[in-house]
Structure formats: structure tokens, C-alpha cells
Design brief:
The complex is a heterodimer. By secondary structure, chain A is α/β, with parallel strands linked by helices. Chain A folds into two domains: 103 residues, 3-Layer(aba) Sandwich (Rossmann fold); 159 residues, Rossmann fold (3-Layer(aba) Sandwich). The N and C termini of chain A lie far apart (59 Å). In chain A, strand 3, helix 4 and strand 4 form a beta-alpha-beta unit. In chain A, the strands form two sheets. A six-stranded parallel β-sheet of chain A has the order 2-1-3-4-5-11, sandwiched between helices. In chain A, strands 7-6-8-9-10-12 form a six-stranded mixed β-sheet, with helices on both faces. By secondary structure, chain B is mainly α. Chain B contains 13 helices and four strands. In chain B, helix 3 crosses helix 10 and helix 4 packs antiparallel against helix 5. Chain B is globular, with a radius of gyration of 19 Å. The chains are: A alpha/beta, B mainly alpha.
Amino acid sequence: MTRPLKILVLVLALAVVGAACGDSGDEAATTTAAPATTAAPTTTAAPTTTMAPEDPISLIYVSPNPLGVNNFLILGEVGTQRVAERRGGTWKTFESVDDSTRRANIEAAIDEAPDVIVLTTFTLVEMADEYSKANPDQKFIIIDACPDEPAPNLHCGVFREHEGAFLLGVMAGHLSEAKQIGSVVALDIPFFKRWWQSFAEGAQSVDPSIENSAVFIAGDNPFSDPARAKELALSLAAQGPDHIFAVGAGSNGGIFEAAQEAGFLSYGVDVNECPSAPGYIVDNNLKVVDAVVEQLLDQVLDGTAGPVVSFGLAEGGTGVMALQPGLADSQCVIADHPDIVEEVRAVAEGIIDGSIVVNDPLFG
Amino acid sequence: MFDQLFDAALFESVIRAMVPILLAALGGMICERAGVFQIAMEGMMLAGAFAAMAGSYLAVSSGLGVVFGVTAGVLISLMLAFGTVSRQGDPIVLGIALNLMALGLTGFLLPQIFGVRGTFIDDRIDGLDRLPIPGLSEIPWIGPALFDQTILGYLAFLLVPAIWLVLFRTPLGLRLRGVGERPLAAESLGVSPTAYKYGAVIASGVLSGLAGTQLALGNLVLFAEGMSAGRGWVAVVAVMLGRAHPFAVFGASLLFAFAEGLGFRLQGNGLPVQITDALPFLVTLIALIAARKRFARLLDLTTGG
């Protein structure tokens, strides 16, 4: 009961709270997923090539977390590197671990005054807003998030997730024998309608009689409670759906286990999750971060970028494994259905040329 | 509508959800009886889940997973025992600190050891086998729910009467309760409160470690950051609601698990998640208000005064 001890414990607790909060924030934003995904070059940092054909450019990528095996963040670096090498210039990566290193890294990047500073994920959105307004001459881009009123020197690259989800729905529409589909979703907030509602819309575009139901994980830890997600998925599957979309980020592992036990087929998000349950995951709603970074950087360097640029199927910013070159090795169920892949390709082309309109559930 | 709500699968789901909560709550209950307010079950469970997964992965053996899970629970319980019993620190402050430490430490070790963030799934992780009891497990409705458990599931059920026997029918249990209720009197009779409190806290470390093991190797076969997801706190409430009596704690754990399982079903039937999510708390409130007097009377009868 000694006072110094009490204070020590309190300080310790607060320190850990801080660390834990930082962690959970990233969790929600970057939606970490299972390991083992496609192409992941292990290069870190290191400036390269200074061929300088005309006006050499310089780029700095500030990641909110260590790249490690986080495919989302690695692809941010890949995109930055590709632009620098194609245009003849230099690039650097500053990896952050917490809020203080994030700030230090962004400030260090501003000191070097590169042509563009590349930021990724929701974790950095407030700093992007703050530093872009404080440094009006420095250009920034941020991927997968956007402040409410971005400064003129900040350009946001956001995804049209509903287009990929629609394609997954088309697959489910063709494959579902029960004519019932469902989604297990982290939270009941409008943003996630881009996944579950567009999934249902895609399936109903194939067969309007298909019934849809969505259930929500909620609880204390919706993005990382696989046990709860598993029970929820089992309970949903018991009511009939044979195709269930897993929109639970870190909770997805439980849904895939439920798929293996109850024998339904599932769909993943963000990266290729098929290897975590081969034979039970049809496909994934992908975010192709490198393509988005590359295109947005080009637009900014050419001076054509708008304040918020959205990337969907047409730009190659979102997609499904079925239309990716790595399909054969993806371990996804869709690889065994070349006829449906062709159907999906036709729908994707329709979405790209505008003959098929996918409603954005967020705005309509 | 009731056809869709109540079926055999619901009972299985309820029992699965209950086992980790019950294991942790039984440990918390022993501490409560020994006069230590235990709220570190959440952290012990998470550390147990991580260690069990790690042990099972490294040795490709669920047996070693159990050993690792228990060890992790015991290590944290030793910190709690040292802080609250030997140094007389505040168990609430220390409990919260340990919970946060477990969350931070497992989140740190996951990428360090296994090279992933968030979730770790691998075929090498050896899950606990289910051991159906021939004959009994074929009884409709309750058979698959009760008699098709992992070893830890059966253990949880057997521990309820076993702990009741020890607490209320043995000198050991009498002394433990004496330490909790009248430490000075116990000490004057030559019973060491320190030893009994240490024992109780370590026992809860073992049980919470097993709870985490069941979660990571029984209910699921994977580890996800923060996967205990509040179950340790539910166990704390189950101890309070059950007034630290084994059968009542069992009932409280079952009640929470049932409310959760039913909530999932109701959601599937179109009830909004905001309502079904509140169900366990509503059930708790109703149980507290409606059954308070009956609980008290029942407890007086069963504890033998």
C-alpha cells in the first residue's frame, strides 16, 4: 500500500494504455490479415537510381507502422518505388512505430522537401491534415483515408470497395445452391454497407430471388474477436446461407474456421486470404495499394490530381483475385470455376465502361 | 419462429461460449473466497491463449500447448500475488496493469516470433481434440452440447462440484474461507493468510491459463491479438453475480453464454444488433433484480450457513 509503489503502478498502467490504444487504432484502420499473400518484395528503404533524364524527382514514403509482413504497407512502398524508378528519381521509406516516431518521420520528410510525401491509412489522416496545412508548399498524398476538408496541397486516394464486393456477389449468385447468402460484418455502420450490401446486390444481379442476411460482430473487440465471429457465422449458416462474406478484419479467422466446420464457402477482404482456409474461400475484395499510390503520384506530379481521387475497377485500385494474374496459385475456390471467372470478367468490363452501374451504398 | 431460435446447435454454441468464461470465473471465485479481488483474468486468459498457441505450434502438440498456457497464466498470477499479497498493493490497479501488459506483450511477441500482425493461423497449430463420450454424446439436443467436449470442457464441468466440495466440505476450504472473511482470526489459529492467498491467486492463474488455452486451441485453432475480447471481464461479473458460490457462478456463466448465443440467433432473425448486443446486460439486470432474494436464500441453504 506504499504510495511510491502505487504511483509506479499507475504510471506503468498509463504507459501501457497509451501503447495499447495506438495498437488498436492501427488494427481497425489497416485491417491486418492472414500471412502468406502474393508478391511481397523484402526491400526496405535505401535510395536508388539517380539517372536524372530531365528533372529528377524525389519521394518519401512515411509508413504508420513497420512494414514487416503487412502487405498493405509493403505495397505502398512498391508503388512509391515504381514511380521513382520510372521517372528517374530517388525514394526513401521512413517506417514509424508510434505517434512520436510518426511525427518525427513526417517532420524529417518535410525538412528534405521531396516532391511528394506519401502517407497511408487512417492512422495518419489527422497528421496529414495538420502538416499539409502548416506546410502549404509541400505536396502530400494519403491513401485509404481523407480529412473532411483537405488542404490544396494534400491529395487523397480512396477506394471504391463496393465494386469489388459486387463482383464477389456475382460469384456467390452463380455458386450458391441454397439461394441464400449472408455477411458477417464487424460493425453496423454505413461504411461497411459497401461490403455487405454491394455483395448482396451483386448476387441479386445474377438471380433476384437470392435472399441476403447480414449479422454484426460488435461486442468489445469487433475487429479481433474470432471466437465471437465464428459462433455468429455458425449460427448464420444454420439458418441456410451457403455463401458468407467475412467482413471482420482480424475476426475473419474465426469465420473461415466456421466455414470449414459447417461446410459453407466464404469470401475475404483487402488481401488474398484464401491460403488461410484453402478450398473454403472463393475470392477476396482486394485493395491494390501499389496501383493507387502509383497513379495518384503520377497525377500529382503532372499537376492533374483532384483533392480526392477514388480508385475502383477501372483504375485497378480495387479488384478480385479472379481477375489477377496470380489466380492459379491463389488457392482460391474461384480458380476451379473458369466459366464464372469469365462471367465476372464480363461484369467487371461492364462496370468499367459504365454499362453496369454499382450503387455506392454510402451515398445512395 | 421458435423453431429457428432454439435448436441443438444453439445449445452447442452456448456451451462452447461458456467454457472459457466458466474456467476463468472459477479461478476468480477462489480468489474472492480468499479475500483477493481478482480482475486480471482477462490478461491471464489472453496470455494463456498466446502461450498455448505458441507451445502447440512449436511442439506440434496440443498437450504442450496446455502446459504453456497454464505456465503463462501462473507467471502473471505470481506477479499479481506478489503485488497484492506480499506488497499489499491495490488489486484493481495491479489487475488493470496486468491486463494491459498482457495485451501489449502478446501484440508485441506475435510479430516478433511468428512474423505476422493481427491473426496467426497455421496448420502446425495442434488443436485440442474433441472427445465424444460414446452413447451419451448421441442423446438428442444435450448430447452433442455436453458430451462432445475437449478435455478442458469436461474439466470445467467437473471442477464445479469439485471446488464446491473442497470449499465447503474440507478443512482446506474452511481455512481458505476463513482467510478471506476473518484474516486476523485465521492467523491467530496458525493459518497463514499469505500462503492461502498465494495459493488462491496461483489457482486462478492456472484456471485462467486453461480458459485461454480452450479459447485458442479448443473453440478456435488460431491466435488473434486481443482475442479474449472481454471474456475475462464477463468472468469477473459472473463471480459477483454468483456471489462466489460454485453452482451460482456456473449458473451466471451459463446465463451470459446463453444470452450471447440467443443474441446471435435473434440477429439472424432480423433483430438489430444494437438490441441483441445489449441482451447479456439486460439479462444480468433482470437476473439481479428478480432473483436477488431467491439467490440469497438458496445460498444460505447450500453453503450450510
